[in-house]
Amino acid sequence: MDADLAGQRLDNFLMRQLKGVPKTHVYRIIRSGEVRINKGRAAADTRVEAGDVVRLPPVRTSQRAADKALAMEVLRDGASSSVGATAPEREFLFLLEDEQLLAVNKPAGVAVHGGSGVAFGVIEQLRMARPDEKFLELVHRLDRETSGILLVARKRMALKNLQEQFRERGTDKVYLALVRGQWPDKLKVLDKPLHKYLLPDGERRVRVVDAAHPDAMRAVSLVKVQRRLVLPEVGEASLLEVTIKTGRTHQIRVHLASEGHPILGDDKYGDFELNKRLSKADMLSRMFLHAWRLSFTHPATGKRVKLEAALPPELLQWVDHEQTL
Asked: 1, 41, 147, 181: which one has the fewest Cβ atoms less than 10 Å from its Cβ?
């Protein structure tokens, strides 16, 4: 494998190489063990390195996905598309921009990358907006429904350095979440193992399991009550600062819901009846989870960087016009 591609997760590497192959199929062949690195089985989060031999089974490209991939390549080359796709026109707010990285204030409802029925994500939009950039890669991920700070590396060295900081807990990540009910002051540490599973339709979900579960992944969240509120349609609610010490899929959403305090607007683990009322009344149409603060060591200067993304207007109105307990 080319040295310029080294350090990527296997799933990301395959999705960039197998243009036109559905994301679900890529994950299926990885889980089944059909993808081999140096003759051994590999997981989706395995890092591919220079010199690795990656072997794949025969894969079939769907015409629709192939057309989408072709359209994206044409658009990135600056030509007009002949297959009907159009580049999304969206401006992102940058909290930091230098030669090493970009810190994007991601809006809710925008995926970080394309796949699973999503034509374009943040990274594809950035690549199309910056066709002269030789390297743009996601450092980490945010759920599509989550807004806030997202890092994108502009250099291979920066990507490896920052991803190592995320793996070794060298970063501090604090989220703001608005939950139903009064969060107990004494409940400050959630150390609950999580397990990923699939619904019958193939959609991914996460649940809390016992530590003895064979597939349990340790997950630790620190919770601090910022404000206690009384809100229309909701009643008592709590605005929480949640610091994650592990970066598990849907970690905050599952941890808070498991304590009986789901995040408002969460369509996977939330209070569905309450969410329906809030949406019908045009009060809240998204999940109230926001990547608020992030600190890390700059990969080039070695200095500590502290970023903060203010709550977007559709969330800020909930904590600006309320009765505080």
From this structure: 41
